[in-house]
Design brief:
mainly alpha; 15 helices; 7% strand
Length: 517
């Protein structure tokens, strides 16, 4: 029993010891934790104080910067204000000086005005005295000469007119002599501006083609049953086909010569083949149209190669080929264009210009007459727009557009093309002219010259290219013949239209006639 008690006491003592050990350990740890916490708090306080000091220094520095910036801005504003005040003071001084100067000038003007008024009074007085003297002198002269002032004035005017006419004729001769002796550049301008002028009186349009047949039996086959063949042919070609009582002939009528040529060739193939019906007509017309198109392009290429012109746009080459089927005033358009191109090259060479450019402009000058579309524009303007569209050079475009004076000429190529176009159209036989219009033009030339006083006879010779005027020797002197020639030439230029140029020759002669008996 005692042993159990001892064991219990021992166990109790052991448990108490362990509990005391645990409590001691916990107490020590608490003290350590408290001391560590105090050290952490102190460290945090120290760091906070350091941060607070840093922030305080930073805020002080920023405050100093703001203060310095504000002082700097204030100083700048102050300097600007001071500068503005100085300018205002300077301007005020200048205004005061200007005002003083204005007052001084105003006083001077008043003084001058008073002087001028006094001088005007003196001049008026002298003028009255001079008028009196002039009237006295005029009365004296009228009394001495026996002529009134109006009569003397008329005689003086007449004498001055004669002197002026003589001087003018002499001055014109001097100018013409000087123009002949001027430098090469001036000569180019004068020659180009004074070469031929041209205007055409009539336009003969080729609008029909006659298709010959072997016998009148073919007419019925061309017409077809109830006219179906002829309607199909007209619809396919766009040409009116006239079948009448004309023996062995059918008339193809239309304003487009290319279409007329297509219709003529198609009819020729149909008649030769013998098979004439709507389907065959459409087939043949299609083949002929393609054939004509190829021939047009080939003609354009051959023309460009013959003239030595390169780099033309394919559409321009095609238009040049179409010229073969066009006519202008009875003159084949392609031949006219080729002739104009060669003339332009020759004239450009004589004037020291580029003959290749001139030949190119001459070939293209009437390109506006053969467009695929027909806008309502003059052919010169339309041709210029086509040339611009296909990237031709500006001087060539201007030469095309200005060859009928529809726009301003800006280069020497333009008058060259204009002159060569006139030469090609005005040469003998180039264009048809109605006989009545030709005779009327000659009569008009002679009547125009006969309207001048002192003219006895007039003769239009050399197909109207020269006008000879015979004047009376007792009515017109040598100086007046020169003036009369110039006046007639100017009136012909202003009032008449004619191909080429007209030479006016005024002849004044004195004849002495005696008879031997």
């Amino acid at each position: 029993m005692d042993a159990y008690i001892d064991i219990l006491i021992y166990i109790l003592i052991t448990v108490v010891g362990i509990a005391l050990g645990i409590f001691g350990t916990i107490f020590i740890q608490n003290k350590l934790a408290i001391s560590r916490a105090k050290s952490i708090v102190e460290e945090a306080n120290r760091e906070g104080e350091v941060i607070r000091q840093k922030e305080l220094l930073k805020s002080r520095e920023e405050g100093m910067k703001i203060k310095e910036e504000a002082e700097k801005n204030a100083n700048q504003r102050l300097s600007r204000i001071q500068s503005t005040e100085a300018k205002i003071k300077k301007r005020e001084i200048e205004l005061n000086q200007q005002q003083q100067e204005n007052q001084r000038q105003s006083k001077e003007l008043d003084n001058r005005r008073q002087k001028l008024q006094a001088e005007e009074n003196v001049i008026a007085t002298k003028k009255e005295e001079l008028d009196k003297l002039r009237r006295t002198a005029q009365d004296t002269l009228e009394h001495i000469s026996g002529l009134s002032a109006d009569e003397a004035r008329e005689k003086l005017v007449e004498s001055m007119k004669d002197e002026a006419k003589t001087a003018a004729a002499s001055y014109i001769n001097d100018i013409m002599d000087e123009a002949k002796m001027t430098a090469n550049k001036e000569a180019k301008r004068i020659v180009i501006q004074s070469i031929q002028r041209v205007a055409t009186e009539t336009a003969i349009e080729n609008s029909v083609t006659v298709f010959h047949i072997d016998s009148d039996e073919i007419k019925g086959r061309i017409i077809g049953r109830e006219g179906r063949n002829i309607r199909a042919l007209e619809a396919a070609t766009g040409i009116e086909i006239i079948v009448d009582d004309t023996p062995e002939a059918i008339v193809l009528s239309g304003f487009d010569p290319v279409r007329r040529e297509i219709a003529r060739l198609a009819l020729h193939q149909l008649v030769a083949d013998g098979r004439i019906h709507p389907a065959r007509i459409e087939e043949v017309v299609g083949k002929v149209r393609k054939q004509i198109e190829e021939e047009i392009i080939e003609t354009g290429k051959r023309t460009a190669i013959d003239l030595g012109i390169h780099g033309l746009h394919p559409d321009l080459i095609r238009m040049i080929g179409k010229m073969k089927y066009r006519s202008s005033y009875g003159q084949n358009l392609l031949q006219h264009a080729r002739e104009t191109a060669n003339l332009c090259a020759i004239m450009a060479s004589e004037l020291g210009l580029n003959p290749k450019k001139a030949r190119r402009a001459g070939l293209l000058h009437d390109i506006g007459k053969v467009p695929d579309e027909e806008p309502e524009l003059p052919h010169a303007i339309l041709g210029m727009k086509l040339a611009e569209k296909y990237k031709e050079k500006p001087d060539i475009c201007n030469a095309i557009g200005a060859h009928h004076d529809e726009i301003e000429q800006t280069s020497l190529l333009a008058p060259i093309v204009q002159v060569c176009d006139a030469i090609s159209g005005a040469r003998p036989g180039a264009r048809r002219e109605i006989v009545e219009a030709y005779i009327k033009r000659l009569n008009d030339l002679e009547q125009l010259a006969m309207s001048y006083p002192g003219v006895l006879k007039t003769y239009a010779i050399q197909a109207g290219r020269e006008l000879r005027v015979i004047v009376g020797a007792d009515k017109i002197d040598d100086a007046q013949t020169e003036s009369l020639s110039n006046e007639i030439a100017k009136r012909i230029q202003d009032e008449m239209t004619y191909p080429g140029q007209v030479k006016i020759t005024v002849i004044r002669e004195t004849r002495a006639v005696s008879f031997a008996k």
